Amino acid sequence: MYERNSRRTRLRALGAGIAVVAGSLAVGAAPAVALPSSGGALFTISNDASGNEVLVYRRAADGSLTLVDTVATGGLGSGGGLGSQGAVTLSDDGKRLLVVNAGSDSLSMFRVNGTHLSLKDVDHTRGDTPISVDVHGNLAFVVNAGSSTIEGFRVGHGRLVPLRHSVRQLSGDAVGPAQVEFSPSGRRLAVTEKATNQIVTFPVGSHGWVGRAKVSPSAGETPFGFEFDPYGRLVVSEAFGGAPGAGTVSTYSLRHGGAVAAIDTAATTQTAACWIAVTDDGAYVYTTNTGSASVTSYRLAHDGTLSLLAQTGVGDGPIDLDFSTGDRYLYVLNGASDSISVLAAGPDGSLSAVDTLVGLPATGAGIAAS
Q: If exposure means fewest CB atoms within 10 Å of the residue's CB, which of 93, 191, 338, 369 is most exposed?
């Protein structure tokens, strides 16, 4: 089952003021309308146990970053690694930023105006240790690592409203969830479980109704970060418990009944493949390899098969990553070196180093670029 127009594609098309049609833009291709000279923004969190903050960076036209603000989330971080993708996420229209507060079991919502953030609401989750959040339209869902649950909120009018009867258990207790994300249509939620080597999906109604979980085995061990491509296929990193050189990336189709089925698996030849980014046109896939200080790139064919392209060195302990509007620049958060690597993306999927921003909090997590 194919579902076009991913959340990332919609967001970046709005941010650039252009219409993006799946398959019409290559990585690094110039948009139909020039980006503003200010470039855009990038957001990450301190995840500090004494008080979580959003670090706000202005992105210049050349991809470089400048810290312009730190804004309290009204919650607490965990003070350590979250082991998740999606701790920070932008809404479809880029006007709201949602952030997890893993240390105080809460979710924060900000209004976004360029690089200016206004905290609008903080709401407690009904589970323990929220680590990942995603938003589709006026619905947002978090996954709680401590209680192995998902739960939903309605987003709008400056408030987060918990959805009744939206709390659902994953496949069991202590399953080690890594991420939650909507399918492009918003009709399915997917969650990866590191401890069980499974991928769980849930049907979601337009008003936030959540159906029964469908559990599918992953193609490789320790499924971690993932992203839906423009055609509704899941692209998942598999860390294999950090075994040296064992990381893989797999693609999956989303079946009508809700289960996922593996299409292809490609080795990274690197250690601890953990976070994933897919270009807006679905042509290229990138995964960070936490144990190898590298990013592996692939070409993604129309049938969902993967072809290894290259390995690109970044800072120590790369974790989360995200593209800027138009896929011009890839930003990699390096957990072990407290830095962000700035990489320029070429039309052939190649990556080249532009800059390295240092001095980030040692507890930092999550990254979202506009």
A: 93
The domain ranges of the chain are 7-21+40-369
For residue 199, the one-letter residue type is I
User: How would DSSP label each residue in 189-245?
Assistant: EEEEETTTTEEEEEEB-TTS-B---EEEE-SSSSEEEEEE-TTS-EEEEE-GGG-TT
**Span 269-310, pLDDT tens digits:** 999 999 999 999 999 999 999 999 999 999 999 999 999 999
Q: What is the pLDDT of residue 137?
A: 94
Cβ neighbours for 66, distance < 8 A, ≥ 6 positions apart: 57, 58, 60
| Nearest C-alpha neighbor of 284 from the set 261, 260, 317, 251 | 251
Residues of the chain short of pLDDT 70, as ranges, are 1-38
Look up tokens 């019409």; give the residue: 24
Closest CA to 370 of 314, 324, 338: 324
Rounded to whole angstroms, the Cα distance separating 291 from 236 reads 17
- Among 247, 237, 242, 239, smallest CA distance to 269 is for 247
H helices present in 33-161, as ranges: none
pLDDT digits (tens, 9 = 90+) for 321-355: 999 989 999 999 999 999 999 999 999 999 999 99
Supply the DSSP symbol for 31. Answer: P
